[in-house]
Amino acid sequence: MKVNPELIDEIKKYGAFDISACFNCGNCTAVCPLSKEDASFPRKLIRAGHVGMEEKITSAIEPWHCYYCGECSSTCPREAQPGEYMMALRRYLIAKYDITGLSRIFYKNGWLQTWLALGLLAGFYLLYSSYTGDFGALAGKIELAFPVYVTIALGGYIINMYRYAIVKPLGGIKASLKPAHIYETFVHGFTQKNFNGCEETDWTRWIAHLLVMSGYVLTLLISNLHLLSPLDKQYSAFSPVSLLVWYAGLAILIGGGVMSLRRVFKSAESSKFSHPSDWLFVATMFLIGASLLFTHYLNVAYGPQDPLLAKVYRLNIAIETVWILLIVPFTKWIHIFFRPLAVYFQHVKREAAAGTAFGFNLSR
Amino acid sequence: MRELEKIEVDTLVVGSGIAGLQAALDLADQGYSVAIVEKAPSIGGKMISLSKVFPTLDCASCITTPRMASVSHHPRIKTLTYSTVDAIKREGKTFTASVTRKPRYIDEKECISCKRCEEVCPVYLPDEYEQGLGAKKTISIPFTNAIPQLPVMHPEHCIRCGACARACPKDCIEFLQEPAPVEIKAKAVILATGYETTPMTAKKQYGLGKLPNVISPMAAERLLAPHGPYGRVLRPSDGMVPGSIAYVQCAGSRDKSIGVPYCSRVCCMYAIKQAILLSGSLPIADITIYYMDIRAFGKGYEQFYNNARAMGINFVKAKVARITEDEKHNPILRIERQEGDSAPAEVKHELVVLSQGLLPGCDVSKFNLGAGLNDFGFVQLSDETVSSAVTAGAGVFAAGVVKGPRDIPDSVVDAGSAAMEAASYIRKL
Ligand SMILES: Cc1cc2nc3c(=O)[nH]c(=O)nc-3n(C[C@H](O)[C@H](O)[C@H](O)COP(=O)(O)OP(=O)(O)OC[C@H]3O[C@@H](n4cnc5c(N)ncnc54)[C@H](O)[C@@H]3O)c2cc1C
Ligand code: SF4
Ligand code: SF4
Ligand code: SF4
Ligand code: SF4
Q1: Residue B121 CA, ligand 4 centroid: distance in Å
Q2: What percentage of chain B has pLDDT greater than the value 70?
Q3: Closest ligand 5 atom, CA of B268?
Q4: Could you tell me the residue range of the domain that residue B296 belongs to?
Q5: pTM for the complete prediction?
Q6: Domain harbouring B186, CATH code
Q7: CA distance A49 to B330
Q8: Domain shared by B205 and B348, yes or no
Q9: What was the ipTM of the complex prediction?
């Protein structure tokens, strides 16, 4: 196997500055509630990082099994922050899977992504403000373009993840067609249920996540199904769509607020280290919730012709545009897709090891 | 308070473990007078409660008792037990120590150590000398080979039945005895306050001392001692003879998460020693030592370790991350198996010993003697390359574990060095 002596320094650029203190005792793996017989981490991956086994790291799916409960970091005898190392590996892997190379640049250059986001936001706001036609109709089209863009971005990621995690290490295209495996993958995708595999369930974190997730999914539905056209008609405060909006906006604000507070006060292992992209993610989420709520409030209170509403709605769409273009593909958001995929790939690896996987070998 | 007792000597030795005993003897044999102050009711320190010692497997009390006896009978050594050093003042070239003799509630001069009081006392307490594994009476002589052989009464448990007073042939029970102040003037001070082991509650993941079959290494020493609490090795929860015993190395050291980052030096060796002794007393038991690395640091120690391996003791490289128990109180260890395809695993044993580390036995900075402490509270030497006993405080010397974790041979050697340095310091005054 080829060895890359710079590997550990490379990984450190994505966080995990203390990992050189590790003396390879295995406490982290033993204490980790999610580490398993056939998916043993973090120590093995730390070791692989230290000795430069690049392929072991790039083909690893274990980082996606880790939910950063922080047990390992708080009990590591060397305070080497193995949990943060797992987080750094996830960033490193995203950068690997990302064909555009943008993730790598963003992760390594602190606040660059934030400045870019601010710039883009200003740009899109001006652009949308200067549009003289029917903005409501344009907004509808923009929102319809979102899922197409995200699907393409995600597709690229998934193909690359498959390449790194399955095709390269197993030397072929492998899959598992067992219904149970496919079902489990979906269950993990919807519930992110391993969260509660952690020893001491961090309820605040879980509820905050649940609020943000549900609020966010609703916001997606509302905008992508174009349920709202606030510039065309007036909604009543208790119409079904309004209720959805109130919930979605508030859930994002409250959940996002709790998450930010935890980052500020570093109240759990998982929120001790914040990468600028984490802040960007939370802040933008917050803005989406706030602008959605405000838009709808103006519509309900003053009707579709309100001049402030016209401005706020454009801002709302501008924020969503930046979110989709820059935040969704290049931050933690994407984790929610890698996690269930990792569950599936684990099954594929297991099947491949047992020789029962579906697929064919590529000659090298 | 009783009347102030005044003592004037050349050297004050604080602590009567093997280091303090040796330093006192070396000085007294050279003609210097010594006062040795010990907070426990008997001299002897930790060593007197050990079973046997590595790497020779000599009986610990057979080595310690003669030294204890020499100290207590030495014409130039004044021994104060069950006494605390409250303060030490430096005035010019003399140190003045304020010491308090705690009340034993007996007349120490009259008592003839007949144990009649102990025999008749109806109240039992957990025996801390046996690490809580046995029981003692509310009025009792601390242990069989304690020196002095004087009983101590624990008034907080006494029911004032008066049986001891009636039984005592010398009429020496004094229910109203008060603490007695002592003033010791000395020209030099030797600090030999030793260590305490890391508390059982130090690491949350190890059960906080609530798992009955997870015991301290001192308790294991007592189980192995010929005159220990049960006279044989039984496990605490149900008195069963354990068939599988595990040692958890670095349970109280080399762990930043409990604030003890340093290696305690002796715990690898005492674990190996205990494992060897256990395989002697329980020939069919499985014994496993979970370690990060084995630090067999002294002469002949590697050989000792290899002997243990050859005897069939299992050495597994793994840091134990968590200890739980099943419904029968069998401890379950969670580790990562690192051989082959490494993976997390749970292993069940019947008795588990935590190889705890050594923490400073006393915060000597409270005496303001000018001796610096390192980050972990051990006395810092002024220049380790020049002397193994001289501290930054003039006339203040250190011996034994007070300077940092070390074994008995090393403690004895540097007790000799402390005595020599103190003698030359006094001569130059
Ligand atoms: C479980 C276990 C097994 C061990 N087995 C071995 C072995 O087999 N071989 C070996 O070489 N080493 C062994 N060791 C190490 C050994 O115990 C020490 O090296 C040795 O006992 C140190 O002696 P000491 O005099 O420095 O300290 P101690 O024995 O701790 O003596 C210090 C004395 O000072 C007293 N004291 C503390 N503070 C005050 C105060 N303020 N005023 C008055 N008195 C005070 C204490 O009561 C104590 O009596 C073992 C250690 C442990 C924990
Ligand atoms: S990260 Fe910490 S717990 Fe994990 S192997 Fe390294 S030192 Fe041990
Ligand atoms: S953060 Fe939690 S889930 Fe992740 S490796 Fe550490 S212990 Fe395991
Ligand atoms: S008076 Fe107290 S110490 Fe004496 S025998 Fe009764 S209970 Fe024991
Ligand atoms: S002596 Fe051994 S058990 Fe003790 S701290 Fe050092 S390595 Fe750990």
Answers
A1: 5
A2: 100
A3: 2
A4: 199-357
A5: 0.87
A6: 3.50.50.60
A7: 37
A8: yes
A9: 0.86
